[in-house]
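step: validate -> pass
step: tokenize input -> pass
step: predict -> running
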Amino acid sequence: MPINLTERVSKQDLARLIVRLARTKDASELCPAFSFEEDRLYSPCLMLGLVTYAFAVGIYSSERISILAREDEELRRLCPDLFPNAEVVKCFRERNRLAIQDFLARAIQAVWEVTGEYPGAGQADNLNRNIPVPAKARERWVACEANEWMRRADGEDRRVRKPA
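step: predict -> pass
step: emit ->
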């Protein structure tokens, strides 16, 4: 089961951290998200922040991410005009898969640096937090966690589309 970063930092601090990181991302490295229904182009950096924040709090399906954008108080405060529908979220995710996965790893790493412990640590692990984690092992774990979030999102969207 993928980790939920709000076990390490508050949703408010997590949203601020992710949106701040997303705003530093070079938008030219991302495919933009466009809604034909609304005839609107969404900021690729803010879409990256939205998807990352959603995954970090345990929300993976495009439909639920779309709802989160409308209902999460902290996100609305930080990104007041970001209300993509599920198709826009899904399309953005599909077109920016590698960039999202890299950014997810960056967000997990940022939480690790802020808290001083890796986000997936259980109580036993936290008792040993003075033991340094080798950089390569940390990078591998972070990359695997980001990959698991993407895999979970793909599965959730496939499950939603299956006819009843």
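step: describe -> The mean pLDDT is 84.
step: cleanup -> pass
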